[in-house]
Structure formats: structure tokens, C-alpha cells
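Q: Here's a chain of 351 amino acids. Please give me its 3D structure as C-alpha cells.
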Amino acid sequence: MDRRNFLQACGVTSASLLMANSLFGAITVEAKRNPRIKPISGSWFEFAHGSAAEGKYWNNVVPNFTDAQWKALVKEIRETGMEYLVLMAVANEGKTYYPSRLQPRYDYASPDPLEAVLSAADECGMKFFVSNDFWAGWQDTNKMMTSADIAVLREKGMEEVAERYAHHRSFYGWYYPNESGLWNTIDETTISYVNRCSKKARELTPRAVNLIAPYGTKSVRADDNYVRQLEKLDIDIIAYQDEIGVKKTKAGTAGKYYEALAKAHAKAGRAHIWADMEVFEFEQEVYESALVPASFERILQQMEDISPFVDNILIYQYQGMMSKPGSVAPTGRQDSSLLYTDYMKWRKSQL
């Protein structure tokens, strides 16, 4: 699944790895209390979903969120035990979600949603991977990854975002959301794009931990060629999409792909392996209807399947799929509160 296309079309230095290991420790210790299933460590986070059909149950809600509601949402997610948030986009289709000199801002109730969520994350101890895109039309992945003009705009955007927000304790790293599919291996376009992004990220925020979340997990041939390509990729964390929600893989079967990838990562000696686990299903047709919560029974099966092979499980996503009952910042259908309740009941039983 190409998360960059919103579900429709939608080497690391040893020092940085040591730093990442020390920062990942808290979640690892917690997970050892249940050696069979890791809890959810974090979630993607959006100011809007690219597909209006898929974002039906939150796209019309979040533009009206006040600063107080954005902050409440972040703190609500933290209450679940999640530690990481991955911001999908700082801009989209020629507008930004924060006050920018580069493009006009979306007309949201909050004058600066990015400041609101980072401030809240500072207060409650969450860590944000902040997006470095989308500075043009998100639909054309290849153009976004190869255009020299867009690359220049992206880097100016990174400079602006770092200037405005990198002082936040919660500014943990960068997320590069443009991804091509891993058909057999990591293609040269992806390597070039990721490495250029990482070069700029390390110039601006040397201590940042950077992440990508590619799709096509099922198709990867985790052979020596994949190891060689992985060795060329300057990224700290790869959170592979399990592709259960888009029905490319069935719950309980993705673990074998993660197992093979974990062996390839160990052989390459770089990039931590995380999971980008899909906790949604489609209301009707795949890619053509709203994203809605999957059953916790299915999600627990996904967690059990992939837990042995990844450092952390991130989900796509809390917004729309989970919502604390009585929340002042609700998103999703009524069953998003049910999934929240079911997950919290399970998590508390593991403590």
C-alpha cells in the first residue's frame, strides 16, 4: 500500500544507531512483560486525509479543532501508552498546515495546528516524526521524488519547519512520506530521494531520528540484493506496512514477511525495523470508501503475528479509528470509541 498516495495510488552512522537504541528502550522494556505481543507504540497523525472518501469521518471535523482540542487529542493518544506520532504532512496541494512564507495556509480554526500538537507533545512526553512534505500534488509519486524544483521547495520547507519548531523537545525526527513500492527490492529512485532528505535533515537537526514507511512488503525479496540496497539507504527506521487493511495480506500471515526482512536488516547492519500496522478496513469498496475501525480481534491477531520481528508497532491510525469515549476532540464513527475501549481493556490486562 502506498500510504503516500493516501491508500489509493494514496547508511546510518553507528552513533545515531546507538542513540536510537537508548531512546527505544522504554517501549522495549514494557513489551517484555508480554513476550508474545508488543503493545502499540505510536500512530500516524493527520491534519487532513488526502482522499475525501477515505477521510469521510474526520476530514470535516478536524479543520474546526481549536488549539485546545488539538492538544487534548495528543494527550488522549498518550494516555493509551503510545509514545510516537508520525505526522503525515505539513503541506498539501499548494497550502500548508502552519504559517509559512512559502505557501498560503489552510483556513483552520487553529492558527497553527503544528505548534499546538508539538506543544502538547512536549507536555506529555510524546515524540513526533515531523513530515517534510507534501509541497506539491501528492498524487504523482514519481514527480514528487524526482523533480529538482520540488526538491528545492521541500528543502526550503524543512529549513522553515526546523527554524519554527525544532526547539520542541517532542521534535524527535523527520518522516519522509513519498514512497515508491518495494517491488522485489529498494529502487534507486527511493534511495536517491531518501538519501537527499536525510542529508538535509542531518544538517538541520543532527540528533533527529528519521523514518520511512514503505508499502509492497509482501513483494520484497529479502535476498542479498535487498541487503545491498538497504546498505545504501541512509535512514534510521523503516516501518513496513503490513497491508492488512487494504486486503493485500490476511491477518496472521504478514509475520513471515517481517521475519525475512528482520534477517535482511541484521545482515545489512543498519535501519531499525518497525511495523506500520493497519487498524482500518473500508466501509465499502477498497480505496473507494471511508476508512473505518477494524475489530480488535483482528488487530490483536496482527499484533501477535508481527511482534517477534519488529522493535515497535505503529498504527495507521488513531484518528478516525480510535477515539476516547467523551473526548473533546472526537474523530471517526461510534465504533472508534469501541476500538479504543477494547484496546485499553487489553492493554491494562497486560500491565
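Q: Can you summarize the key feature?
A: The longest helix spans residues 14-31.
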